[in-house]
Amino acid sequence: MVWKRPAEVPYPKVWHRFQAKGLQEDGQLEWYTVQDLPEDRFEDAIRHMSEHFARDEQLNKAKGLDQDVIGMEEVVQLWKIMLPERLSLVCFREGSDAIVGVNILGVASKYDKDELKLKSDIFRTIIATIEYISHQANVFERYGVDQYLNAMGLSVDPVYRGRGIATELLRARVPLCKGMGLKLTSTCFTGPGSQAAARKAGFEENFNITYAELAKVDPRFVYPGLDEKSCKYMSLKID
């Protein structure tokens, strides 16, 4: 069943406000908002994600996704499919329309049967890795839900990193889920930075595997330079 945003929920809606350091050297706190990504900013968000997430995220970086023309076309196409669901979040510094961070979100259903038909070996391997870890986490049975809020990328502009923006984007999922009637949000967090942000936002660990162990599961799941690090599937129940 295709998930649809409830018609009674305003769009775009601000879900979360917080204070963090601005861009001034004096470290003065400024207000930021996390809101629905407006339709007129879809292309801007895709450019942001293509420039930062595709290059910096652990799996993408290890496999060189940003250098794979076909893989990049396919990941952009996936984002374009997800964005019209009107679940994705964007962070702005109040008084500015420059994108601070983006979290591309969608609803995963227990009854999803569609498989992505991918031509890129790199992107296909990354998706297979995430699917394997998701299957091991077994969140549908663990939490007794039929659907949950999932993600396909979270990225903060390098200029704004070190201010806790990723944590606040993750915290914004709580009011978002409540507004959408969702009881759980779960995501595969592939690196120590995103895992730390998730812990601060209240996520709990469902499954943890080192990249060295992951490479033994499937010869495709070799991620150079990451052997000692781990990949975690983490969840946050929405009360």
From TrEMBL:
It comes from the Eukaryota. GO terms for molecular function: N-acetyltransferase activity. CDD domains: NAT_SF. Coiled coil: none annotated. Residues 151-203 form the N-acetyltransferase domain. Pfam families: Acetyltransf_1. This is N-acetyltransferase domain-containing protein. It comes from Aedes aegypti (Yellowfever mosquito).
